[in-house]
Structure formats: structure tokens, C-alpha cells
Amino acid sequence: MLTNKEIQIRDPFIFPDHENGKYYMFGSTDKNIWGSGTGFDVYIGEDLAHWEGPFPVFRPKDNFFSNENYWAPEVHQYQGLFYMFATFFSEELQRRGTAILVSDSLTGPFEPHSDGIVTPKDWESLDGTLYIDEEGKPWMVFCHEWVQVEDGEVCAMPLSEDLKECAGEPQLLFCASEAPWATSFKHRARKSEHNYVTDGPFLYRASNGELLLLWASFVNNVYAQGIARSTTGKITGPWKHDDKPIYQDDGGHGMLFKTFDEELRLTLHSPNKTPLERPIFVKLEEEDGALHVVKE
Length: 296
Hints:
Blueprint: E1 2-3, E2 10-17, E3 22-28, E4 40-45, E5 50-58, E6 68-78, E7 81-90, E8 95-103, E9 111-112, E10 125-132, E11 138-144, H1 146-149, E12 153-158, E13 171-175, E14 199-205, E15 211-219, E16 222-230, E17 239-241, E18 252-258, E19 264-270, E20 278-287, E21 290-293
Antiparallel strand pairs: 1-5, 2-3, 3-4, 4-5, 6-7, 7-8, 8-9, 10-11, 11-12, 12-13, 14-15, 15-16, 16-17, 18-19, 19-20, 20-21
Protein name: Glycoside hydrolase family 43 protein
Keywords: Glycosidase, Hydrolase
GO molecular function: hydrolase activity
């Protein structure tokens, strides 16, 4: 068994399996995610503190379209199967984007489902997540990367019912600079001094009906986790940002889930430096849509 302090992982994503009382933790598990991609693994545990694994759930075949930047796998159950949304660098397009894999089991193996990248072919994109709207229609919410647009964007794009391809044009939800807490930075490889990051969108419907969108950026070059709220309750917004991040201690790319005891948890990775990244679990309380960290 491994503890959280022994597991190097970025972008942790928890799938609670109520049938067998186990948590499945996916994430960016290559030792060096900035280079050649090995695949994705899963860790399995019962208490969010001790884990068995890692168990391989995706390993690319020789004809797979990507050889590097295997990032941020999320696993969602949809129409009886498990779909993995993950970021890859496309050798053909010479860009990053989100593709969709599928399996009939949480432990895989996951196989290609979409025909390569689903996000716009001429965009630098990453961190796609699945959202099912109030009419039962699937959307991908993802980031249009700052490396291309400087002021990183969060966008939503309708998907076909079978999740194989896009079913409409992407819609801009917001730019990173719209959040009062996010700060810009200068990058040595970019001319602009006003670069803003968007990372890791994740949707959560609060108990009061509010639709929340978690996303990550930086505060004075420190990784942080923020929250935006749809003023209409719909994925298309408009979106209003909380004044302050919910977590800003060099951690981000988070998601929310309920424990088997119905307690709300935020998981993210911290610190934001390879190879030191570890999964962090933060207990939250929700009051009329507002989320508060519970001191433990």
C-alpha cells in the first residue's frame, strides 16, 4: 500500500465506485509529463489515504497518434461505459488537444474512441472535461491555452451523443484575466508581459442549484484554485468569479467529489513542481452554494 506522500501525480481525478466501496484515482502519472508519454495508471483505495497500485489503464499502441504530453485524464460514466478525456500532443497537428478513450471497466484497458483530437484542430487546447446539461446533451469544457492566446480561455463545445466528435462551434465562457484574483506573468519565450493561465476546468452542481466551474491559474506566480459561477445555471453562462481562490498554497487543477460518507472533498496536486507533485484532499463545507475549507 502507498500513502499520498509516496505518489507522484498531477491533475488527480477521483471516481468513487459506490458498488464496491473503492476510490479510483487517475491523473498524469508519467514521471516526466513534459516529455515522451508512457500512458496512464490508476490507484485504488478505500480511505483516500492508502492506495494499491499503480495499475496501468492505458498504454498506446504503435499506431496511436501521440507520443508525448499525456496529461490530465478524467474518467466519466456515460451510457453504461467509462470514457476517459485526456490531453495529448498530436504529432500530425503539432498541437495539444483533448481526445476521448473508452473502456467497459474502471481499470481499463482504455482504447481510442474519438478519431484523435476532438478540440479545434488549429487551437492549442488542453484539460477537456465532460458536462451533461439539463437536457441531457453532452459538452466538452476545455482550456484554450495561454501559449496561443496569451489570456487563457475556458470554452465549451457541444459533443455528439456518442462522444466521438464535436457537434458545434466552441463558445467562450471567460478569459483568465476576468477573475479578480488571477495575476499575469512574463514568460522568457513570449513577448507579452500579460500572460494569464487557465487550467483544469471541472463542473459541479451545488445543492442550491448553482452551477460552479473550478479552474486553476496563478497568483503572483503561485498555482491556485478558483471558482466561477454561472449566473443562469447554464453552461453558456454568463460566469461570475469568486473574489478569492479557494486554495492558493501552490496547488491546483482540482475537482470535487463526495465521499462514501457524503462529505465534500476537493482534490488537487501540490506543489506544482515536478517531481514533487502529490495528491491533496481538502475537506469542504457547502452553504447556499458557497464553498468553505474545513480546518482539520
